[in-house]
């Protein structure tokens, strides 16, 4: 059984740029959630996808968007990057959210 | 709105001593509660969860937690801490669809030899 894989592990972007983060779900999982974890804080829910449809969103602006593909892998896109977007971005997958989520190791995004 | 408070930012215990990490939540309905652990540079690992039933929940790595509705608490305990337990611990509350969980800001555990 594979876990959740995120790529890249680290990246540095300039303010105003766009970034795409990728997540491969654990095998058999059809639900993916994305979280933002700023330094010293708990994860903040960005949005969730279930069978390629967004079915929940946290308090994040529209420049945060996502996709889920037929194989249930997912992307998080952030446009017009701001310095405050610097954080660890975590992807978590589940089978319909029933038994909790499996988290990836995250992508560390630094905006300069 | 749902929220989670972890009152202790940092706790230090000696190896072999008992541990209790506090978690208080606010949630409008029957809560679904979780404890996760995060090692430096890593993602979160689920320690245990409470959905319903017995209010004392057993998890992995020898951890347990007790749900107390009257106190809106879900404290995590371990009878004897090991050096490898040093990490950050997060309590979370959410709907059955746990992907929409609200997390606390975490408690950092340091274990003294």
Radius of gyration of chain B: 13 Å
Q: In one word, what is the shape of chain B?
A: globular
- Biggest sheet character of chain A: 7 strands, mixed
What is the count of β-strands of chain B?
Answer: 12
Give the low-confidence spans of chain A. Answer: none
Which secondary-structure class do the elements of chain A indicate? mainly beta
Keyphrases for this structure?
heterodimer; A: 112 residues; mainly beta; 7-stranded mixed sheet; 4-stranded antiparallel sheet; 0% helix; 51% strand; B: 113 residues; 6-stranded mixed sheet; 12 strands; globular
Q: Explain this structure to me?
A:
The complex is a heterodimer of chains A (112) and B (113). Chain A has 112 residues and is mainly β. Helices cover 0% and strands 51% of the residues of chain A. Chain A has strands at residues 5-7, 10-13, 19-24, 31-37, 44-50, 53-57, 64-68, 74-78, 87-94, 102-103, 107-111. Chain B is mainly β. Chain B has no helices and 12 strands. In chain B, a hairpin with a 5-residue loop joins β7 (56-58) and β8. The mean pLDDT of chain B is 92.
Helices, strands, pairings?
The complex is a heterodimer of chains A (112) and B (113).
Chain A: E1 5-7, E2 10-13, E3 19-24, E4 31-37, E5 44-50, E6 53-57, E7 64-68, E8 74-78, E9 87-94, E10 102-103, E11 107-111
Parallel strand pairs in A: 2-11
Antiparallel strand pairs in A: 1-3, 3-8, 4-5, 4-9, 5-6, 7-8, 9-10, 9-11
Chain B: E1 3-5, E2 10-14, E3 19-21, E4 24-26, E5 32-38, E6 44-50, E7 56-58, E8 64-68, E9 73-78, E10 87-94, E11 102-103, E12 107-112
Parallel strand pairs in B: 2-12
Antiparallel strand pairs in B: 1-4, 3-9, 5-6, 5-10, 7-8, 8-9, 10-11, 10-12
